[in-house]
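ESCALATION

Customer reports they have been waiting on this structure for their group meeting. Please prioritize. Original submission:
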Amino acid sequence: MQRLFIGALLACAFASVSVPTAFAQSTWKPTRPVAFVVGATPGGSLDLTARLIQRIWDQQKTISQTVIVINKAGAGQGLAWDYMKDKGGDGHAIALGGPNLLSNQITGLHAIGYNDVTTIAMLLDDYVAFVVKADSPLKSVRDVVERLRKDPGALSIACGPALGGGAHIGAVVGLKAGGVRIQDTRFVVYKSAGEAVIAAMSGEVDVAVGTVANYPAHIASGRIRAIGVTAPQRLGGVMANVPTLREQGIDAVFTTWRNALGPKTMTRAQVAFWEDAFEKAVRSEEWQKDLERNFWTPNFVTGDKARKYLEQQTELYRKIFLELGLTKQPPRS
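Update from on-call: job pushed to the front of the queue and completed.
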């Protein structure tokens, strides 16, 4: 029953998203430099995404004022959102977000959740892959599931950078949908997805999980094999031969989505301006090339549909974290 619930909930979530029509002309525009706040250190995927959008806006001359990327890593991106909030709600501070916007409050990592910010747009989907050492006897996620259904502790599964992160929850969604008792599964936490895949290549662990962009070079070198992906359909490039979980009889889809957000006090005119600015960025050729390079899937959604999607994802996370015993009372702001 739980497996069917997760599959149905995720199917509903993905069915609710669509590409919007053109936005109405906004009567507001920035009158001073804009802070584009990123909850990660320079050079990481989140940071590079923000800088790509900044560069596209500059090339398109979308925004008359300077957009400055500001890095505020820590507390599951919570420090970035605190900084954005402190800059005021007059439309001159925006940020990137992701699943931590939902999980932080559930786990008690940080007080800010999606109800405390303005969702400007969903931007993309970033799926999770299961990988094994090249000579592993495990040929599919179905093999992993069958082993773990008999003995949940039979295999070690590497993830990073923390329990409750996107890679971990992606694995949990997939294994749980396959009938595995998640509470007894052996997850080994590493500081990063890079360390987790090295552990798999060395045979230190049986399986590693992480977002797809971490693996193409290792797959191409023949050092690891991808045995499944949490996408609704197969991806391209070196991932084209990797079956989805659904193809393996496991009814689950999971994305570590990325979105754009602003302070809760933004006006509708300010939101409309930024919706339009992000729409122009994601329609650019440079953005499309970056999606392809990172095996990301476009998922540009705004307004009520975006908020509904976050509500559905929150319900999914809450149920998973409750079962895993990772829920806590959120800290007071």
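Sent to customer with the following note: Residues 303-324 form the longest helix (22 residues).
Escalation resolved.
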